[in-house]
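User: structure tokens for this one?
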Amino acid sequence: MPNLIEITEFSAPELDVYARLSEVQLRSRQDPSQALFIAESPLVIGRALDAGCVPVSALMDGSHVSAAAREILARLGADVPVFTAEDAVLTQLTGFHLTRGMLCAMRRPALPEAAALCRDARRVVVLENVMNPTNLGAIFRSAAALNMDAVLLTEAGSDPLYRRAVRVSMGTVFQIPWTYLPDGWPEPSMGWLRAQGFRTVAMALRDDSVPLNDPRLLAEERLAIVLGTEGDGLAQATIDACDYTVRIPMSHGVDSLNVAAASAVAFYQLGLQ
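Assistant:
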């Protein structure tokens, strides 16, 4: 049976994780063993559980328990406290309407080593300082859906386990492996990618770029597709260091796509089996 606990005191410290801690505080760099993230909706929570993430507590609208929520409650078991309240109370507590009915605080999983993650990969995504969690979540969803094997990130980018990123990804951050690049960027990590057997593809606007459907790209056994931050795109040093510079053909005077939209187009073309 689930361990249901009705909320009566907003100040209860057990609720800090949902109402009063920032994303940075949840991440708790000072004590990685206590670092948390928030999964929202039964679908996302289920995918996190499938990936082996450990639940700490849950918060839900007790007046409406869907079939999906009942399944999650059964998986959480009796040892995980599940705090419940009416929707109006939850809105006051969390600051937003809990549209999908359930939140779950979970331990952040240990990340794999980059070398192990890339060992059997054909297509990997490299994200250079992508800052917007919405874009990040959308990129992960496209990467999981369109035959990418892994995602590698620079340290300066947003966190894939930020609540918004997890939500927008529909939980695919738990389905496609990811980690941070092992060293500085673009070097020595660019050299490290080449040592793993990858040819690098910079998605950038340059006159000397090759078209996305260039047959040389599909012929490459291993590709690392490099996408840059919103607005500025990839750094010039990164573009110069890549083996290919690739442009998505545009029409109607449009010069470029949002990084999340561009990622879906690139992954579809370059991930063809």
